[in-house]
Structures are given as C-alpha cells and as structure tokens.
Write a structure and sequence with these properties.
Layout (H helix, E strand, L loop, with lengths): L2 E8 L6 H10 L1 E9 L6 E3 L6 E3 L1 H11 L10 H22 L2 H14 L13 H12 L10 H14 L1 H15 L6 E2 L13
Parallel strand pairs: 1-2
Antiparallel strand pairs: 1-3, 2-5, 3-4
Helix pairs in contact: 1-2, 1-5, 1-7, 3-4, 3-5, 4-6, 5-6
Length: 200
Amino acid sequence: MAREVMLRIASDYTPPLSVFATASIGKIIVTVRAKLKSGMPPFIILPCETLNVEEVDEILRYFCHIGVVDKLYDRDSISRAETRELFHCLQRVHACFSGPDLDFDKACMQFDHQLQDHDFLVGDLLSLADIVLWSYLAGAGKKWDSKKYKYLVRFYNLMSELYSLDKVREAYLAAYPVQEDSKMDATEVDLPDAETGKPG
C-alpha cells in the first residue's frame, strides 16, 4: 500500500524534481501545500504521526526509507558509504548543471565516464544518487543529449523507460506554473505508479 505524506512549502518555492521522482519510484503519495512564509524550508507531515522531516536532503532520504524499493539509500557498509558520497557529490555539481557551459560539460564528463561500464552509479542497483542525477539532467534541457555523452544519454533513457520518469517530468512541468497562482494552496501532481495516482 502506498504511503501518504504532506509536503509544506513556501508560496514562492518550487520543490526540486528529485522529490517527485523519488516519490514516484517509491509509490509515495505526496500532497503539496504552499502556505509557508517566504524563506521557510520545506518539510513533510506524516498522517497520524507526530513527525516532521525538514530540508530536501532529509526528505529524499526519508522517502527512500518508506518507499517500496529497497536499498535506495541504506545498503551494506561499503555500498552505503558510496551512495552517501555520490549523493553529496551530486548536490555539489548541481550548480554546474545550471551554470556556465564549461562547468556543465565538466559535470557531464565526470558522470559519463563513471557510467561507462555500469547502468547505475552505485553497483548494479538503483540508488538515490541515480534519481538525483536523472532529475538534474531532466531540468537541464537537452544540451547534454549528444554523442559526446553517450553513456549519460543511455543512463537517462534507461531511467526514463524503467521508471516512467518522463511522465513525472511532464506532470511536474505542468503543475508548477499553476502553483504560481497565489489562490492555489494545494497542488496535485499525477505521478505514474502511485497507488491512488495523485501525489503532488
């Protein structure tokens, strides 16, 4: 059965695509309410539980914990260390993906090389690092989609096909222009594979 959470955000804040991609893969139903004051960090509220999880990094790790896919973040001691390292590495290179082309090329080259002999970044299993990398690429348009980064392209297409993530991206892009309307205090994004079909 899918878990349900409420994500509270500031009215002028757009949560990253990785939140919805992780939720979709884990079959977690997310309802977004944009009523916090500007500058307040996002947090989630769990039904029937007195628990708040704040900040995007913590929210992603919590989704890994409650989702239906095992070992997205917590693995054995060696793989878990690699997953954490890659996750934080992806956070650091996010600026490269949205910044100057030189930085973007450097980031793409780094991960294209890493994916040369593997489908995923950490061993043979999907990890949170893969979801975050896919989200960064999805948000960068198609400037990375070339023969120069053939392993990165292969990775993106594999993730999109296996987990229907292009549908998540389409729903995300359709939903968030609407959320700019101050009259909307809740936004629902229809993520594929969620049990009720209406996380947001």
